[in-house]
Amino acid sequence: MTAGLEGADLTVRFEGEDGPFTVFEGLDIHVDPGEFLTVMGPSGCGKTTVLNALAGLVPLERGTVRYDGEAVEPGSFSYGYVFQEPRLLDWRTVAENLAFALRGAGVPEPERRPRIEEWLERVGLGDEADSYPRELSGGMRQRVGVARALAVDPEVLFMDEPFSSLDDVTGRGLRRDLLDLWAETGKEVLFVTHDLREAVTLSDRVLFMGEDGAFFDGAEIPHGRPRDFDDPALGETERRLGERFFAELG
Amino acid sequence: MRRALRVGLTLLAFLVAWEAGALALGPESLPSPRLVAARLAEVTATGGPRDRSALYHLGRSLARVAVVSVLGLALSTALGLAMGVDDRAERVVAVWLPFWMTVPTLVVILVVMVLLDFSEPAVVVGVTFVATPFATANVWEGARAVDPALLEMARAFDVGRWGVVREVYLPATLPQVVGSFRYLLGMVWKVVVLAETFGLQAGLGAMFRFWFNQGDVTAILAYLSLFVVVMVGLQYALGAASDRLFAWRG
Hints:
The complex is a heterodimer of chains A (250) and B (250).
Chain A: E1 5-16, E2 19-31, E3 36-40, H1 47-54, E4 62-67, E5 70-72, E6 79-82, H2 94-104, H3 109-122, H4 138-151, E7 156-160, H5 168-185, E8 188-193, H6 196-202, E9 205-209, E10 215-220, H7 232-249
Parallel strand pairs in A: 3-8, 3-9, 6-7, 7-8
Antiparallel strand pairs in A: 1-2, 1-4, 4-5, 9-10
Chain B: H1 2-25, H2 33-45, H3 54-85, H4 87-102, H5 105-115, H6 120-144, H7 148-156, H8 161-199, H9 204-214, H10 217-245
Helix pairs in contact in B: 2-10, 3-4, 3-6, 3-8, 3-9, 4-6, 5-6, 5-8, 6-8, 8-9, 8-10, 9-10
């Protein structure tokens, strides 16, 4: 029995205009308890679909999902999801956006307010509870997305290129904060990116996905924590992995 | 302030054109604004046929307009949202909608008035039937435009169908719902007056018929101006209310 989140023989096909189209077939993936695992690959290779298949957002044609050794329906375990765009309800305040997720997670009404306040404080938005999303910067909106995902107190955190649309400075700040929050909470994180430097800085382990939707390589990131984004040793690992990775991709 | 000035100038231009038209055509064909105002004061203060003042008839017509508008809005919102949320509802209603929209208003009103014996419910049923399909199509369009990314987010956070309707579909389509209400109000009052003209004893339509039979154009215009003033006022009030409602748009 393996603890953590495990997907075996995962197969997803979509109906395309020219008939069925295979995103990936027979894919195996495993996230250890408390591990920060990153799936890295070129755009359009199916990285996001891996998250969505495990989260039960796209149907599996074949395959099983296990959580802590038990076979479960995809998405039936407790998870939070941070999307590439913040996906906030523009007509609700920041606090109400978090409440929306908490209600879905079945958190009783009296517990919601304190939890919302706590998480907004932790992502540095303690003063923005009553603001509307459009009044916030892109980075702040993405912070709301992170707070929303963590406020439901999930076992697993799915993150789909959450910092790719942010400018460099904002992205760095958010990555640093994410690592702090992850260290505090010890969640399993399944992270998707096409940015190797980001993968090396954040992860315990990286899986490389090719354009055919198969994992062709993987690597442990042999650096202790906390990590410094500008550490030359990280740069060296990035260069080494990049050579392996891009050689395979051609 | 600027807007008030613009409205004032438009009104003034209208009155001047009316006065000029009255001078050119003579009071038999087109009574001047002053004549109509004097007549309005008279029918409002002392009453017209059967000692009912114009205000009584206005009240009756407005009550019908209110009932039909609210009923029509409730129906069209429910139908439009159901079509947006549920594929089966969409398939069923979408087949009927074009037919429903193309039945001539006059025919519907006449048939319903005859079927329901020229009663109060006849007006309500007939006008609601005529007004609803357009507002339904409008709300449906809004529901179809709801961002699928938000729906996926709601699924990821396990928000149930009612939560999604209440928190995503309804607020996202609120601009269409409010727009539909303004449209309904504008359309419904014309059709209510039409139905009243056909066969009721009270209401502005009944008065139009009465004074038309008397050949009194001045009285018809007096009743009409009263109604137009009230409806335009209502439209302005609704416009202001919707500006407040959509403050989140920033």
